[in-house]
Write a structure and sequence with these properties.
single chain, two-stranded antiparallel sheet, 7-stranded antiparallel β-sheet, alpha+beta, 16 helices
Length: about 525
C-alpha cells in the first residue's frame, strides 16, 4: 500500500517570535533529536488566539521541578499553548507508520503533536510535548488540533492512571482557546502538555522497516537500548533482548489494565509505547457494569478492541513489532536464504514467547491482591483459576459494577456472613453470590487470613475512585458551557488519591446515573 504523501505544515508566526523567559528547572538534552532529520521535522507550533489556562496537574508539574502555581507565572500559558517558543525548546514532530484496526495504514506520524524539548531531571528524562499544537507534515487530512472535550479526558485519565500505579504518559496542563475546531460539531481548541521519557511507538519501527531502511531501524533500536533498556546491550543478541523486554513490559501493562477495568479503545500499533506505557488516550473507558466484551470505542464496530480482547491484541501488535525488527538479526545477504530467515523468525518467536507466561503471572498477581489472597502453595497460579473464572462469570452475568464490587469486597469476613450485605446487594441473584462467596471463604480460611489485615491490603489495591465516563462528561460540560474549570480541578484532586476514603467526595464513587448509559466515545474523542 503506498504511503500517504506528507502534508506541508504552514509557516508559523512563532517562527520569528521573541524567545520567552519561562525557565526549566533542569537542563535539556537533544534526546530524540540526535537521531537525525529522517526521523522528524523541525517546526514551531501554530499559535492560537486568546489562550487561557484550564488546569495544571501538581504531580506532573513536580516531575519538572515545579508546583501547580507555575500556571500563574508569566509566559506559562503562551509557552504551553504554543504561541511562543522558549529558548530551551527544539520543537519537532516525528514520523511513524502503523497498523490501524488490523490494517496497514502506511505513513502516519505526529499529526497534531509537537515535542518541545527533553528535560533532564532527577527522575530521568522527560520529553515535553504539546498535543493539539497545529498542522505538521504528518497531519494527512486532519487539522492538527485537539478540542477541549478530548483534552480534558486525556489530561484527567493520564494523571488518574498514574495515581493507580499504571504505567502511563503524564499530563502537565491544559490550555484552551475559543478558536473553532470542527469535529462532529464545532468545538473549541485546546492543547495538552504531555510528558513521557519517550513517545517512541511500535509504529516508529514499522515505518523504517516498511521502507527497508535497516540503517535507520538499527539506529532507532540502538537509541532505545542505550537510553532506556541498557541491560539489553549486555545480551549476546541485543535486538532480540529488546523485543523480549518490550514484550514483558507490555504484558505487565495489559494485566494492570484488566485489573483496574481500563479499556483503551484504539490499540493500533501506532498507539503502543515501546516502554510499555499507556499512551494516546482517545476513546478509552473504565468499566461500569462488568461486561467482558465491553467495547468502549463507538467507532470499533467489530469489537476488535473490546475489553476481553486487549491481551490478544497486544500480542498481535508485538508480532508486528517483531516483524519490523526482524532485519536487525537477519543480515541483508541472508534475506533470501530460506534457512536463515526461518532461524530469524524462530528467534523472534522465542523473544515473544515470554509474553503469555508473564501476562498470566501478572494477571494472577493483581487479582490475588484484589482478593486479598496469598500465592497458592507451590506457586501454582492455576489453583486460583476456578475461583476467578466463576467470579468473572458471575460478574458478567449479573452486570455488577466492577469498581464498586472490588471496593466493597474489601470488607468481607472470612467467618461472618452477616457482613456480606454491602457487596451482596450489588447482585440481583443473591443466591449465586452466596455460592461464590462460600468458596471464597474456604480459600480465606485455608490460609488463615486475618480479616483486619487483609482489608487494609485490599483497600490499597482496589480503588474507590476511577475516571468513569459520566464524571469526565460532567467536568467537560461545565468547562464548555460556562468556562468553569473548577470541576476539572476537583476531579483531578479526587483521582490523585484513588484508594483513600474521601468523605467529601463520596458522590464520585457512586453508581453512574441513568443518563451515563447513553454516553458514547469514538476516535474523535
Amino acid at each position: 500500500m503506498p504511503d500517504t504523501p506528507p502534508r506541508q505544515a504552514p509557516q508559523s508566526a512563532a517562527d520569528t517570535a521573541t524567545p520567552v523567559t519561562l525557565p526549566l528547572p533542569f537542563p535539556t538534552a537533544s534526546g530524540f533529536a540526535e537521531l537525525g532529520p529522517q526521523f522528524f521535522t523541525r517546526l514551531h507550533p501554530t499559535p492560537l488566539p486568546s489562550p487561557y489556562l484550564v488546569s495544571v496537574a501538581p504531580a506532573a508539574a513536580a516531575l519538572l521541578g515545579w508546583d501547580a502555581s507555575v500556571g500563574s507565572q508569566p509566559d506559562f500559558i503562551d509557552t504551553f499553548i504554543g504561541n511562543q517558543v522558549p529558548d530551551w525548546a527544539d520543537p519537532l514532530a516525528t514520523v511513524y507508520s502503523g497498523h490501524q484496526f488490523g490494517v496497514w495504514a502506511g505513513q502516519l506520524g505526529d499529526g497534531r503533536a509537537i515535542r518541545l524539548a527533553q528535560a533532564q531531571t532527577d527522575t530521568g528524562p522527560w520529553e515535553i510535548q504539546l498535543k493539539g499544537a497545529g498542522l505538521t507534515p504528518y497531519s494527512r487530512m486532519a487539522d492538527g488540533r485537539a478540542v477541549l472535550r478530548s483534552s480534558i479526558r486525556e489530561y484527567l485519565c493520564s494523571e488518574a492512571m498514574a495515581a493507580l500505579g499504571v504505567p502511563t504518559t503524564r499530563a502537565l496542563s491544559i490550555m484552551g482557546s475559543d478558536a473553532p475546531v470542527r469535529r462532529e460539531t464545532i468545538e473549541t481548541a485546546a492543547v495538552v502538555t504531555r510528558l513521557s521519557p519517550t513517545f517512541i511507538r511500535f509504529g516508529h519501527f514499522e515505518h523504517f522497516a516498511a521502507h527497508d531502511d535497516v540503517a535507520a531501524l538499527r539506529k532507532l533500536a540502538d537509541f532505545v537500548i542505550d537510553n532506556f533498556m541498557p541491560a539489553c546491550r549486555d545480551d549476546s543478541q541485543p535486538y532480540q533482548a529488546l523485543l523480549r523486554e518490550v514484550s514483558l513490559r507490555t504484558a505487565d501493562l495489559i494485566a494492570h489494565w484488566q485489573a483496574v477495568g481500563f479499556c483503551h479503545g484504539v490499540m493500533n500499533t501506532d498507539n503502543m509505547s515501546i516502554l510499555g506505557l499507556t499512551i494516546d488516550y482517545g476513546p478509552f473507558g473504565f468499566l461500569d457494569a462488568f461486561d467482558a466484551n465491553h467495547i468502549c470505542n463507538h467507532s470499533d464496530t467489530q469489537g476488535r478492541y473490546a475489553y476481553s480482547q486487549q491481551p490478544q491484541v497486544a500480542f498481535w501488535n508485538l508480532h508486528c513489532l517483531a516483524q519490523a525488527l526482524l532485519p536487525l538479526w537477519l543480515p541483508p545477504e541472508q534475506t533470501d536464504q530460506e534457512g536463515a530467515r526461518d532461524a530469524a523468525v524462530e528467534a523472534a518467536r522465542a523473544a515473544l514467547d515470554p509474553f503469555r507466561e508473564r501476562y498470566a503471572a501478572a494477571f494472577f498477581r493483581h487479582y490475588r491482591a484484589k482478593l486479598g489472597l496469598r500465592p497458592p502453595a507451590g506457586g501454582d497460579d492455576k489453583a486460583d483459576e476456578p475461583l476467578l473464572t466463576s467470579l468473572f462469570q458471575l460478574l458478567h452475568g449479573q452486570r455488577v459494577d466492577y469498581t464498586l464490587f472490588w471496593r466493597k469486597l474489601c470488607g468481607i469476613s472470612s467467618t461472618d456472613a452477616s457482613r456480606d450485605a454491602p457487596v451482596r446487594d450489588l447482585f440481583l441473584d443473591r443466591a449465586a453470590f452466596d455460592a461464590w462467596v462460600a468458596d471464597y471463604r474456604v480459600r480465606l480460611r485455608a490460609e488463615q487470613s486475618h480479616d483486619a489485615v487483609r482489608e487494609l491490603e485490599m483497600l490499597a489495591v482496589n480503588p474507590k475512585y476511577v475516571l468513569r465516563n459520566h464524571l469526565a462528561e460532567t467536568a467537560i460540560r461545565r468547562a464548555r458551557e460556562d468556562k468553569d474549570f473548577s470541576e476539572v480541578d476537583r476531579l483531578l484532586a479526587v483521582l490523585s488519591r484513588p484508594f483513600d476514603e474521601q468523605p467529601e467526595a463520596e458522590h464520585y464513587a457512586a453508581l453512574p446515573p441513568d443518563w451515563a448509559a447513553g454516553l458514547e466515545v469514538s476516535c474523535s474523542s
